Amino acid sequence: MGIALKKILVITGGSRGIGAATARLGAASGYAVCVNYRHNEVAAMAVVEAITSAGGEAIAVPGDVGSEADVVRLFEKVDEKLGPVTALVNNAGILEAQMRVEKMDAARLGRVVTANVIGSFLCAREAIRRMSTRHGGKGGAIVNVSSIASKLGAPNEYVDYAAAKGAIDSFTIGLAKEVAAEGIRVNAVRPGVIYTEIHASGGEPDRVERVKSSVPMQRGGQADEVARAILWLLSDEASYSTGALLDVAGGR
């Protein structure tokens, strides 16, 4: 009988919202978890403490996913403290203030694309170098956190964010095909309006309450509802799913 492969999960932007919910659920599902964060060490350590106090294994590692050097250090730290990654959730992302396109400048666009798109590419690259059978790995799974905005466009609010998430959809499909024969599955979830702190960074903390009537289910979603979809896509229960875009958006 072979030795069971240790399940090691890296979650970018794991200190709050969907990332934190995924970290907690991942630990409960048997993963050793790396909670990546950019600034909020207190929140990240609270997630780690919740996991370890329940008997799980977790570490917190700082790093800006838009920085190539930070991403390399992140995965090297995971190698050192936990072992080679077997599952990656590209969750880190940002919104900027609600704005029409004609008011956006290049600096804003650069920040949005760097955090939401380039960061996902860089983290996937490092994960593939460890997971791919082509590189001597044992396989693994990647879930990208996109957004239903990629389908709806987010007019008058976040067209740049929606476009960045559209890039994540295309990235998911292309990468899934690229590494499918190397033991790696790549899928995405597309959350709808979810009760998280990201709306405050866009300037409207209560945005979910304003828009929930446009959702067929007539409510906003909870971070745990998205986390459950992510963990399913990472699991062997989704063993024949790759390149899928799973909407968790109440019917939008």
From TrEMBL:
Species the sequence originates in: Billgrantia montanilacus
This protein's record includes keyword Protein biosynthesis: no
Keywords, comma-separated and alphabetical: Oxidoreductase
Keyword Oxidoreductase carried by entry: yes
PANTHER family registered for this protein in UniProt: NADPH-DEPENDENT ALDEHYDE REDUCTASE-LIKE PROTEIN, CHLOROPLASTIC-RELATED, RE15974P
NCBIfam families (UniProt xref): PRK06123.1
Name of the featured protein: Short chain dehydrogenase
One GO molecular-function entry: oxidoreductase activity, acting on CH-OH group of donors
